[in-house]
Amino acid sequence: MAIRAVQQFGPVRAGALVGVVLAGGEGRRMGPGALKPLRLLAGRPMVAHVVERLRPQVMDLVVIANDPAPAFRALKASVIPDPPDIERRARRDGRKLGPLAGILAGMEWARTHHPHAGWILTAPADVPFLPLDLTVRLCGLMHVPEPDVLMVRHGRRREHTIAVWSVKLAAELRRAILEEGVRRVEDFARRHAFTELVWPDGAAAFLNVNTPAEFSLAERRLAQARPRSRR
Question: Does domain 4-225 have CATH number 3.90.550.10?
Answer without folding.
Answer: yes
